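Exam review. A common question shows you a sequence with its structure tokens and asks you to describe the fold in words. Practice with the pair below. Do the first one on your own.
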Amino acid sequence: MLICEGGYPGRAAIWNEDYPIHFQKAIHRVRFHEQERNRWFLYFIYYLETTGQLRQYYTGTGIQHFTGEALARLPVPIPPIAEQRRIVGILDEAFDGIANAKANAEKNLQNARALFERYLEAVFTRRGEGWVKKRLGEVAKTQYGLSEPMNEEGKGFKIFRMGELQDGRLMDTGRMKFADIERAEFEKYKLQPGDVLFNRTNSFELVGKTGIFALPGDYCFASYLVRVLLNPKTMIPEFLNYFMSSGQFQSSVKRKASRSINQANINATILSNEMIRFPESLELQDSIVRQLDSLRGETRRLESIYRQKLAALDELKKSLLHRAFCGQL
């Protein structure tokens, strides 16, 4: 049995293969005189980790360690071997069932997300009459965000960063930073409901994320975000937000990104030159937005159900471990 000393202290696994291999010094090896006790001890370590009891054996303040000395001091309950077999057999069967249920829930969660993505792509691929194709710069202006030091003390105005751009929206996570600037300066970057923001700098996977602002209150935005200011007579901002979040737009704009180590950048000029397709009728744009909003709402409802199921399965594992090591199984 191998147990992590650092990194993720207490994480454990049993080696069951039969070929030569070594293990590094940041991992402990444990060998019981009676080998079948390994699985009992594996579940016991998992129980201590999930309940937080294992932390009392860690050392270090920043990076914590589960040292060999601490492992040697760890008291381990050792019931008769027959009782161990019975309990381990119950846990093995239950955990296999939970693993299958989690795999199904995760698959359903992915399917719910994929359903919306497929519909989104279909809307912008199967266009009807009255659609036009223009450069984004023909229907909107772009503006880089604020480049100022930020603070966590609440001085100034809340400022959105790329981490608060989530699921097509600007989210106040409760952990936002502030820009301590004068009101006159803030007004240049103050967000208005319906503003669309584009993440111009991030890892290649995340660059290009787009979201719409719809919150009350005073907020501004940081320099690695670009605000897209639409002509309201040409396009509804919610429509643009959906289009810029579509796979076809994201793929196209990312192909033009400049790349460096762990970083990609799409500047406002590239963004302004990107082609967009939309119906000239604002009524049709609004109808499409309402359809997408409805499906996204249903998708989020399904995602919530599957996330709750995954959380419930994790709680079931903890409950079974608690009962196993408290003499209740």
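Now try the second one, then compare your answer with the model answer below.
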Amino acid sequence: MGKIFVDACLGKETPYTPVWMMRQAGRYLPEYREVRAQAGNFLNLCHDPQKACEVTLQPVDILDVDAAILFSDILVVPNEMGMKLDFVVGEGPVFESPIKTQADLDALAGGEEAAGKLTYVYETIKLIKAQLAQDKALIGFTGAPWTLATYMIEGQGTKTYNICKKMMYSQPELLHRILAKVTEVVKLYMEKQIQAGVDVVQIFDSWAAAIEPAKYDEFSWQYMVQIADYLKAKYPHIPIIMFPKGIPAFLDNVYGNFDVFGVDWSTPMALAKEKLGKRYVLQGNMEPCRLYSQEATKECVASLANTMKEGRHIFNLGHGILPDVPVKNAKYFVKLCQELSKRA
């Protein structure tokens, strides 16, 4: 079950600091591109347990990271709630009918009905666990309710979030009802991932920085904490990673029953250590673009190792790996982290 990685997440002493990279499967791997081509499109790949298992395991075999992250997409949740989803070339994910009214929300499935439709994800997890080496952990994940809601309301990715934020300030009750419904689905979705075999779960709030600090707890963090509380009450042995991207101004207000705080690349690790290091294991936070240069990678890894030498830390990127990163540089990062983190 990847005991070293799980123990590190729980803050226990381990022989070395584990390393993994967010979005491990992706276009930077030729092996991934081959399987993606076979699948026809991205959503087909997510829906095919055999292929999703294969691309989950590829970076573990190629890079020798200490944990695999489940291959899927955060938007399978609203998709199975009843929102028609397409991945459009050049545009990304697009929902045919975004949520605009209470009636739109009422038309969507919730709770067990929606979570129960994600059987292909649970089957993928079972296949991965049957093939994953015993010393490697499997990380399951979900998007945070706020991040999911932005897509559900905007209908696609956005740089301004103006439709979501218009609802936040002019119809806050409707936005809270959307967030609450999504939260109930996510609770059960993560529980079913645990039951299927994941060793660790991570909640991604990719669009956390879209909310002003004064509103962040109300419209995002409290819902993430509700999910963590639900899971910890039933599965206290399963580590929970919280990853809100781009909120260094919120660090003083972080609270909740979880184990690991993911530090994005825009947040100084020394600051995160000062504010949160005594309460949580820290994960991160190399700027992913450093992977274009081995010298830049070496500089950052050495700095992280020095900053966290007396802290609890898991090496990771500060966000997802980019598609044109040389594979040899990704391998270099992992090997370097492993060499520097071994303890005498």
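Model answer, second protein: The two ends are 25 Å apart (CA to CA). The mean pLDDT is 95. Full marks require stating both points clearly.
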